[in-house]
Amino acid sequence: MESISKYINRIARCSVLYRSVRLTPLGLNGHQHSYILLICQKPGLSQEELANQIYVNKSSVTRQLVALEKAGFITRKPAFHDRRCLRVYPTDKAFQTLPVIEQVLQDWNDLLCRGFSGNQKTELTRVLQLLMERSDLEIQSLKSAAEQSPAAH
Q1: Domain extent listing, the chain
Q2: Interacting residues of 87 by C-beta distance below 8 A, sequence separation 6+
Q3: Which end of the chain is more exposed for a tag (fewer CB within 10 A), N or C?
Q4: What is the pLDDT of residue 146?
Q5: 40 with 94: CB under 8 angstroms?
Q6: pTM for this one?
Q7: CATH class for the region spanning 4-112
Q8: Could you read off the pLDDT of 117-140 as tens digits, one per residue?
Q9: What is the Cα–Cα distance from 46 to 88, expressed in whole angstroms?
């Protein structure tokens, strides 16, 4: 059997390229849409919370947030309880881009599912959700094991 990951990874890379082309006129790259969506949904998240929810390392989050802040999409403010912890907030510019980002994502989904019946889309979504849940559980398990190991302390 061929690797499922091969296909998922290829689709993910194509998706980034598609978003890059479509979002560049807004001043965004193909990875930054997830930051904008999450920050607009949950203003005040910490950089660490963003890293955990987007499944990227903290240094990647920092680099993307610096770029988004320079471009005027977000602001970062020290947390009241811990000045070292930066909370991230969307600007009006971020909220204004939301409809365009959502349309780009919808267009990509429509392109991927062109010709699929309603049942096929439903089944594909169900299977992908199952794969996502399994991968989430495994990552959480690995993180817990790493935190428990003596080397982590």
Answers
A1: 4-112
A2: 44, 45, 46, 76, 77, 78, 79
A3: N
A4: 84
A5: yes
A6: 0.86
A7: mainly alpha
A8: 999 999 999 999 999 999 999 998
A9: 6
